[in-house]
Amino acid sequence: MCPDKRGLEDADGVHPITKQYGSECGYMFSILPLPGHVELRASYFSCHTDNQDDEVFTFSFNLITTAASGVETTYAVNATCFLPLPWSPREVSCEENYMEAHSSATSTWQVMFQQEGQQLIPMSFSEARELGYVFHLTQGRLVFRSPYTPRSVMGSVSMINGSVVEVVHPILFSRQRWVVMMVDWIVACSTNEGMYDGAGLVWQTPTLLSPLVSGLSGLESSKISMGVDGQLLDEPITAERGYSLDISDTTVQISIPFNAAGGYRKSFVKDNMYHEFYVVRLYYEQIFLDDCGVETRLRLHRPMNTPLLIQHLSIINQTVLEDRVFTVYLGNLYYDVDLVAVKLNGHNFTILEATKSGLIITTVPQPNSNLHAYILRLPFEDAAVHKLYSPEGLLQFSMDINYTLVILPQEEPFYYLASVVAQFNDVFPPVFKGVCNEKSISFQMSHKPFDYLWEVGVGPYILTANLAAKRGYIMQNDSKSLTLEVPLFSVGYTYKDINLKQFYGSFEIHSRLPKTLEVKSSLAKACLFQTTEVIVCSTEGVVTVVTDVTLAGAEPNGTFLLDSTCRPQETDGTRVLFSFGLHTCGTRVQVDHQHVTYENEINVEHKIRSALVALMFSSLFRITVRCVYPLSDLYKLFAYWRFDADSPGVGTILTRVPVTTHLSTHHQKTVDLHNYFQHRP
Question: pLDDT value at position 351?
């Protein structure tokens, strides 16, 4: 609430509380730094207060506030206060905007104000009222109220032990027939407003207000007490709250720690910054005794507040690298601040959603304070965490956090940004070792802590247990190592330098990043194998085949393809080696919806002399060489009329051999021998 007009309403009408009216009538009205809080303090002897025998005081009126928008709000104020302690014969109250003193009352009075170097001029109470001084007679007391300088034209200002003291010295007298009664009355109040020293609020006043002491003969300080909100506190409570009351011969100093009990602290947001302030309504009381033991009581009300303070939140990265979990501490939050949401690298989570997604947010109290903190935990492997790897072996996990916090109870939001990074050195992709076996190649990799960052691949495919089983690989994977044995002629091999004695078969395995599929390390192991029977359908459209042609007494040197000019490149006593293009040597082509099949035949000359038997063998003995490619792999064949496959074809050697048991009767049967060297995903 930010009122721009205040007023009191009673049976006599509405009375706006201006600064002058408040000092004359005994009201102190202030708007506290706490949003929506205003404070009205009224003297027991204030205007519009019902006084019964100076012991029972009744407040019954309406407080009217008018906001800047023009909307008026009325608050009913009703309070009855009973005198907690008997009045001292003389009392001085120091308010923020006026000084008040009262003592035992008598009949009609006049007043003179004593000022240094000026003549005393008697005046009536009504004349004094015109100057801002109020004298009021109750049933048993005489009340004097004075504004502070500069309106206190009859007052003066003194500097006593570093404190500014306001002094007013009225002399009251009354004529009762031939007797004149006179009261020499001094009112002195320290106007020190207090200060914030970075740790708390500090207020200081002279131990002895010399104008007050010198004006009353033999006056000495008897007791000094402190409290808050108009109530004195005993020593155990002040000690428990951390208050201190230091009294020396010259000064009294009161210190109240920031956010100590008895004060009012508030958080709020300004320019998306977390601010706070702290307010204490200090109450100070000092009792003086004169030579006759008559008591004078000095009361002082002094609201004090800190300036607007920026509360710096504390971010501590408590992450332990070995745990591979981000642990981030957000602290220095007071009880009226709540965390409602977080954004992690652009991913939004409410507190409820965070728990469901694996993000853990815990509220923890901060020891020995009214503060609390939040601890956020998120595994490095979470999808929300950014990962960055450099070829130099530096692995970095990073997280940008945007905390959404609210101030209670108005739920005013503000945001706090933090970034945390975890780094590991000497982190490299998995490394394989390759070993050549008689009919296979074996690969072995020892597991390291960060192997999960990469995936192991064969060609474009991820190496999984299903892929290994489908292709006939033998794979073992446990917590310590991965072992893969790849039999010869399995899918994924490449071949070169094929001859009748030996050839090179190579197999490549690699580590790559899962998201980009970028290969970070690879091992292509090439091994020398002995040649028995081989067929290779290359991605360039070349067929290389080694096969035995002597099952029925054929002569290797006499073999040829469908095009009789295509002869073997190499032969020995039993085998032949042909290498030819798929569009040469009479190769036949057949296309269906899914495949392109290339087929050729190895024809043989026989050493059998009988014309009838030779005719029979020529019709029944044949070796078919076949390569099958997926139609989808051969787009260049039809786009550019150039053979270029994405993967090797599936090769087949089909040998049809007649087996005779009784040639004299021409009884025979046919045996098909199939050798498949398949290249498929």
Answer: 87
The closest of 427, 375, 435 to 403, measured between CA atoms, is 375
Q: Name every residue whose Cβ is closer than 8 Å to that of residue 665 and which is 6 or more positions away in sequence.
A: none
77 vs 506, residue with greater confidence: 506
CA separation for the pair 546, 576 (Å, rounded) = 6
> Residue 494: exposed, middle, or buried by beta-carbon count in 10 A (0-12, 13-18, 19+)?
middle
Torsion angle, alpha carbons of 551, 552, 557, 562, to 10: -100
pTM: 0.63
Query: Which value, in Å, is the radius of gyration of the alpha carbons in the chain?
Result: 52
Backbone φ, ψ for residue 437 (5° rounding): -110, 180
Distance between CA 537 and CA 544 in Å, rounded? Answer: 7
SS3 content of the chain, % helix, strand, coil (to 5): 10, 55, 35
Least confident of 228-242, 484-498, 534-548, 623-637: 623-637
Compute the distance between CA of residue 353 and CA of residue 348 in angstroms, rounded to an integer: 9
Please tell me whether residue 588 adopts helix, strand or coil conformation: strand
Mean pLDDT throughout 434-448?
94
In this structure, which amino acid lies at residue 85? L
Task: Name the residue among 280, 282, 277 with its Cα closest to residue 302.
Answer: 282
Burial of 591 (0-12, 13-18, 19+ CB in 10 A): exposed
- DSSP assignment letter at 538: -
| CA–CA distances in Å: residue 558 to residues 572, 574, 657 | 12, 11, 17
Which residue type sits at 340?
V
Task: Give Cα separations from 373 to 148, 205, 362, 641 (angstroms).
Answer: 47, 39, 8, 71
Contacts of 655 (CB under 8 A, 6+ apart): 547, 551, 622, 623, 624, 672, 673
Q: Name which of 59, 27, 19 is nearest 43 in CA terms.
A: 27
User: For residue 502, what are the contacts with CB-CB under 8 A and spacing of at least 6?
Assistant: 528, 529, 530, 531
CA 75/CA 1 separation, integer angstroms = 13
Task: Determine the residue type at 540.
Answer: E
pLDDT in tens, 267-286: 888 888 888 889 999 999 99
- Checking phi first, is residue 98 left (phi over 0); if not, alpha (psi -120 to 50) or beta? beta
**Does pLDDT of 302 surpass 50?**
yes
